[in-house]
Amino acid sequence: MASFFAHFRRLSFRPLVSRSPRSVAGQVFVLQVAVVVMLVACAVFALVLQSERDTKTEATRRSVAVAQTFAHSPGVLAALRSPDPTRILQPLTEAGRKTAGVDFIVVMDTKGIRYTHPLPDRIGKRFVGTIGPSLAGKVYTESVHGPLGREVQATVPVENANGKVVALVSAGLTVKNVTVQMDRQLPIILGAGAGALVVATGGTALVGRRLRRQTHSLAPDQMTSMYDHHDAVLHSVREGVLIVAGDGRLLLANDEARRLLELPPDVEGRFVSELSNLDPETVALLASGREVTDEVHLAGERLLAVNQRPTDRGGGPKGTVVTLRDFTELRAVTGKAEIARERLKLLYDAGLGIGTTLDVLYTAQELARVAVPRFADFVTVDLADAVLHGEEPTPATTIMRRTAVRGIRDDHPLYEKGRLIDFLPSTPQARGYGSGHSELVTDLSTATGWHAQDPVRTKEIMDYGIHSLIAAPIKARGVVLGMANFWRSGQHEPFDEEELSLAEELVARAAVSIDNARRYTREHAVAVTLQRSLLPRALPELSALDIGYRYLPAQSGVSGDWFDVIPLPGSRVALVVGDVVGHGLHAAATMGRLRTAVHNFSTLDLPPDELLSHLDDLVGRIDQDEDQDEVGADGVTGVVGATCLYAIYDPVTRRCVMASAAHLAPALVHPDGTVTYPDLPTGPPLGLGGMPFQTAELELAEGAQLVLYTDGLIEDRRRDLDVGMELLRDALAGHPDRTPEESCQAVLDELLPGRPQDDVALLIARTRGLPPDRIADWDVPLDPAAVAGMREAVSQKLDEWGLSELAFSMELVLSELITNAIRYGSEPIHVRLIRDRTLICEVADGSSTSPHLRYAATMDEGGRGLFLVSQMAERWGTRYTPQGKVIWAELALPEDNFTPGTSSSPYPLM
Fold first, then answer.
1. For residue 707, which phi and psi values (nearest 5 degrees)?
2. Distance CA 73, CA 249 (A)
3. Close Cβ partners of 125 (under 8 Å, ≥ 6 residues apart)
4. Phi first, then psi: what are they for 848, rounded to 5°?
5. DSSP summary character for residue 849
6. CA diameter of the chain
7. What is the pLDDT of residues 127-149, one digit of tens each?
8. Which contacts of 331-339 are long-range, i.e. CB under 8 A and separated by 24 or more positions?
9. CA contacts within 13 A on the Cβ side of 575
10. Spatial separation of the C-alpha atoms in residues 743 and 708, rounded to whole Å
């Protein structure tokens, strides 16, 4: 529309301008100049008259003032009483006249005979003027033809003390002098008039120039022709045009706008807010003045596309121009296109908003959230209980649990979330669940089968206003997992067949996500079960350490974090913590293999560095056995690597030896509450091979706490490793008396307020020292005769410990072990007896030759010593030291020498 008018203007204006003999602007200029000249002339004439009037008024006022002043002057009455008043008053009047600027001051008696006058020959003659009012005590002014010519004079009475008029005083000016004063003002008046004429003419010229520019120098007939064309176009186009002023007043409405909006004839000049027949949204738009493009509004039964633009962009007046196009004929087509677009948008949003997590319940809630209120007023999702546990449902049952409820209001009478519902076979839900096909109920009031489910509740639902239902089965891979129910209420139209197809498509997309979440739930449960079965179920009771631990699986998936506490001979304890790279069943199974391997290697009583070397070889072989081209069920190819920390604590010496395979350094809580991180040499991760591991040895004070953990405790996407270690230090520091269990909980509360993103293993061990009175040791010379002395010494020590009943068995075991050391070993030979949860006997020598248990034949003279030891002892074994080897044996204590309910042996059975 705007482009049309611009084209029209380009076509019509220029020819008209070229033909203009005298433009409207020129005619207006001439008229304005004439009016200005006339106004200035009238103003000058008025000023002259005003000046003349003001001058006469001033002369009269001055005459009155001078006459009154002289009449009341001191000495006037006395002079009048004197024999010759003229002699006294004449000089006074002449001096006063000159001083006051008047032409004469005349003093006369009550009969009008002058005492004084500027012309002496006039003294004694009758005063020219009216004296009657003055004799009555009044001031009288008049213009007369006197001795000096035409005069303006004022006459005032002179009264004595009794108020009687005794004389008269008259003062005045000649008209000639008054005219002279007026003539002095005339140049100023004429100059001001000329200046006003120049200024007004200049302003008129500027206004005319602007008018000429705005009218393009058009003549009146040309402008008439242009506006005739304008009106013809404005009222013949098939678009409504409105012009609204900045204050909201409607300035113009063409015929099409009047027809489309059904405006009254007198609408122009009224405020748009007063047009009650218009839609409120349309009125608000017209009054707002905001710029819009093809905004759709209703006007009665018509659908209008409204465009609104401001009129002040080019410096014009503030307001808006509005164009209206009738889209009524396209309304049906547009409505269908809009419905199709909304449905596509709904399906698109469902693809983005459903299945964001692998949680069955949350996915069901996402389906309900997407559909309300864009498709249905209420949505309920019912799933079979087996689906919630990751299993496939059995088709024979129609019992489902309501897992999601969402609606436009919360006071609905539908079954609540979490309820277990057994649908009758006549209900749409049961039919859809059994057949796998959707059920459309356009009128619930006639659905007798649905009413039979719960007559009381169905009546409440009907009374609430819910009138239409779509029950769509949630089906994936041919298996029905549950039902999604879409409800409509109030004034909304019932569901139709097209909407049934949309509901099926919507539920089909959600069914895939629900089935994926179900399978993930099953796999996650299996992985967690496997992982927990591979972790320690209970820790052994120990004298050397007080243990506390925590294991938290990740929020999604399982990984290979693990820990273990392994009792070792000689009351020692091995602490292990590790982390297999990756997640899922593969990582959990690999963790179980590594934990089993550590148990097996620990039975050899290997030092930490050697045990990690063996473990490194095992992980390398596992990597080689994995087919790099095959991807496991969890998407991981082989074992990328693993970390491990292995430590051995000896309560006799209170020393701890540890080695690390790329694992985080442990935290050490000292008895005074301070926390440090020991300087531990860190080796490569397990599985890389080729690099040796190093050990570090620490002496731990009794009551110190050794804290072992995995990286899931201190590291995540929100904080760095160093920050996490400082947080761990802060959580542990300052609480030396806290038990390991309390410390575990405090650490988790501080570092992991929510569910962790990665598995977390935490192991805290408080050290204990073995009292010296429970340890006895002797050096034994390399002489068979020393065996008897050792038997006696051991017997005495057992008597001191109250274990005399074990003297025979211990003497027999000790004799065999010492004899073997003397016969097959080398110096130095050392014997140590330890009373702990068992009675431990250790014989050390400088030889690395390991004895072997064998069965002696009937005729053999030797070979029965270790057999006797194995029969008498609970267990026995050999461990190697840098100086040689140690052969040890353990005997169970009598029942009154250990805590009831605990095993006499701390070693777990493998």
1. -110, 115
2. 73
3. 113, 114
4. -100, 10
5. P
6. 200
7. 888 888 888 888 888 888 878 77
8. 331/303, 334/303
9. 29
10. 12
Distance CA 883, CA 863 (A): 26
Amino acid at 226: M
Q: What is the pTM of this model?
A: 0.51
Query: Which domains does the chain carry?
Result: 54-174 (3.30.450.20), 237-327 (3.30.450.20), 341-525 (3.30.450.40), 539-626+639-767 (3.60.40.10), 773-892 (3.30.565.10)
Tell me, rounded to whole angstroms, the distance of Cα 466 from its chain centroid: 36
Instruction: Give the span between the Cα atoms of 875 and 869, in whole angstroms.
Output: 9
Tokens at 386, concatenated: 């087996």
Contact 671, 608 (CB under 8 A): no
Residue 834 near residue 775 (C-beta atoms within 8 A):
yes
Closest listed residue to residue 437, CA positions, set 470, 415, 466, 414: 470
Dihedral of CA atoms 658, 660, 663, 666 in degrees, nearest 10, equals 20
Helix (H, G, I), strand (E, B) or coil at 452: coil
- Give the integer Cα–Cα distance in Å for 214 and 269: 24
CA 153 to each of CA 92, 628, 731, 829: distance values in angstroms, whole numbers, following the listed order: 18, 137, 116, 162
H/E segment holding residue 518: helix 497-534
Q: Which residues, 6 or more positions from 160, have their beta carbon under 8 angstroms from its beta carbon? A: 77, 166
pLDDT at 163: 81
Neighbouring-strand partners of residue 107: 169
C-alpha 777/C-alpha 789 separation (Å) is: 13
pLDDT in tens, 182-193: 566 667 766 776
